[in-house]
Amino acid sequence: MTTDNFMIIKTILEGIDSQMDGDVICRDAFDYRAIGCSENRWNRLVEIMHEDGLIRGFSVGSSSIGAPAGKPRFENFRITLAGLRYLREQ
């Protein structure tokens, strides 16, 4: 079974976009459990989306060299203009 990473990215962006009218983005509707992927994959894809400028408000806690990445932190999690353009092109 192959995982469609681009479909997961699209689902996350759509989840954020659908909540733009609210005060806070609730990740429960598009977290790894709701999407059906591993927590590690979800975290890595969100990190990729952040690095590519599709989202803001995500950071990874520090970890020592050779250790697993730190726990992700979300503060003012939101979609960017680049993220909206990505959705429009899909």
Summarize this entry quickly:
The chain has helices at about 5-15, 30-35, 40-50, 80-90, and strands at about 55-60, 70-80.
What does this structure look like?
This protein is an alpha+beta fold and 90 residues long. The chain has a single domain (5-89), classed as Orthogonal Bundle (Arc Repressor Mutant, subunit A). It has four helices and two strands, in the order αααββα. It has helices at 5-17, 32-35, 39-51, 81-89, and strands at 55-60, 72-79. The protein has a two-stranded antiparallel sheet.
Keywords:
43% helix; alpha+beta; 4 helices; 90 residues; Arc Repressor Mutant, subunit A; two-stranded antiparallel ribbon
Task: Show the helix and strand layout.
Elements: H1 5-17, H2 32-35, H3 39-51, E1 55-60, E2 72-79, H4 81-89
Antiparallel strand pairs: 1-2
Helix pairs in contact: 1-3, 1-4
